[in-house]
Amino acid sequence: MAAKDITTAAVLGAGSMGAGIAAHMANAGIKVQLLDLPIEGAEGDERNGRAQKGIDTQLKRHGFQRPENAELITPGNTEDHLDRLGEVDWIVEAVFEDIDVKRETFAKVDAHRKPGTPVSSNTSTIPLEVLLGEASDEFKRDFSITHFFNPPRVMRLVEYVEGPDTSTEVKEQMHHVLERQMGKVVVDCRDTPGFIANRIGNFWMAVGAKTAFDTGIKPEQADVAFGKPFGVPRTGIFGLFDYVGIQLVPGIWGSLLKALPESDAYHDYNIVERDEFKTLLDKGFTGRTAESGFYRGRDEVYDFSSGDYRPKEKFEVGKDPKELIESGTPEGDYAKEVFATFIKYCCDTAPEIADTVDQIDIAMQLGYGWKKGPFALADSLGIDFVASLIDDAPSLLQSAQQAGGFYADGKVLGTDGNLTDLPEREGVIRVADLVAGAEEIAGNDDATVYKLTDGDYAGFGVFVYKTPMNSNSNAVTELWTHAPEWDLKGLVIANDEERAFSAGADLGTLAKLSGPEGDAEELARTIKQGIDGLHGARLAPYPVVGAVRGVALGGGMELLLHTDASVIHAEARVGFPERNVGLFPAWSGPVRLLERLVEIGAPNPHATAFGVLLNVKPVPAVNVDFWRENDEVIQSPDHVVEGALELVKKLAEGYSAPADAELPLTGETLEYTDGSETDKAIGEALAKVFTGEGTATEDELAQRQVDAATEVLQRQENHDRAVSMATTRKPLNN
Question: Which of 470, 483, 485, 521 is 20 to 30 Å from 369 at the Cα level?
Answer without folding.
Answer: 470
